[in-house]
């Protein structure tokens, strides 16, 4: 197991990793929808935003704690882009949380329970608890430049306090608050995509299933999620594929399990979204030779038979060209 100190080192699913960051933005940051392979814990201090997590949108304000599990699609949406936005947040991996085991009690178990119930948003009504959670995370943030041994000893105490208090409120209040259903039809479409990402999905089929005009549907979907339907489906499929690959599954099998019709489309989509890490790139590189003939045959049939003369594919990646970054 690797011990990772910062996100720039590209933590993998099995790494011991945590990192706290504090940010203040005079203007709302443009952050696209994305996923991570670790937990994110957000504490909002000032400002008012919406947070889209999977198929729900939450109104977030001071006193709210957001817990986003690994491989969960999320995106911050501004209410007022010019409003000052202040937050502190922490990334923490499952191996790190699992290291806090006290007899039969684990810091991770309540977070996993919340994840299974798809509960991400918790309001801390007790101001004392809220401030203690904030101070514990802020102390971890301040310790980032300490020597490794000193930082680890101080931070493990802080992590215990931080997550224990959050778990207390997970048990107290498992119901999400301030869920915004902008359009009930779009909510149903989002839920349907999340449940059926591995099946063929098209705009025409979705519009017919939910009795809505295709063009109206695409407009409302983009307004609610800031993503096109195509990009949301792609992000969901890649997120699930990433989870399977980092758990040891082969890309040559995963692409069929996550809704892709062929390996070449899957490969391009994986790189396009820029969420594959060093480990998954290496897996692709190692599988590239075995699949290259099949990929080229597929592309030849798809493009050359249609009269295109020149075809370029970004499949030149090889194991000799994959370097650690």
Descriptive overview:
The chain is α+β, with helices and mostly antiparallel strands and about 325 residues long. It has a domain of about 180 residues: Regulatory protein AraC (Jelly Rolls, Sandwich). It contains eleven helices and twelve strands. The strands form three sheets. It has a six-stranded mixed sheet with strand order 1-2-8-3-6-11. Helix 3 runs antiparallel to helix 4. It is globular, with a radius of gyration of 22 Å. About 30% of the residues are buried.
- Helix percentage: 40-55%
Class based on secondary structure composition and strand pairing = alpha+beta
CATH architecture grouping of one domain: Sandwich
Shape: globular
Q: List how many beta strands DSSP finds.
A: 12
Separation of the first and last Cα atoms: 18 Å
Which regions have little confidence, pLDDT < 50, spanning 5+ residues? 275-325
Average of the residue pLDDT scores: 76
SS strand fraction: 15-25%
- Using only CA atoms, what is the Rg? 22 Å
**Biggest β-sheet: strands ordered side by side in the sheet:** 1-2-8-3-6-11
| CATH-assigned homologous superfamily of one domain | Regulatory protein AraC
- Total helices: the number is 11
Write the CATH fold name of one domain.
Jelly Rolls
Largest sheet: 6 strands, mixed
What is the element string, with H for helices and E for strands?
Answer: EEEEEEEEHEEHEHHEHHHHHHH
- CATH classification class of one domain: Mainly Beta
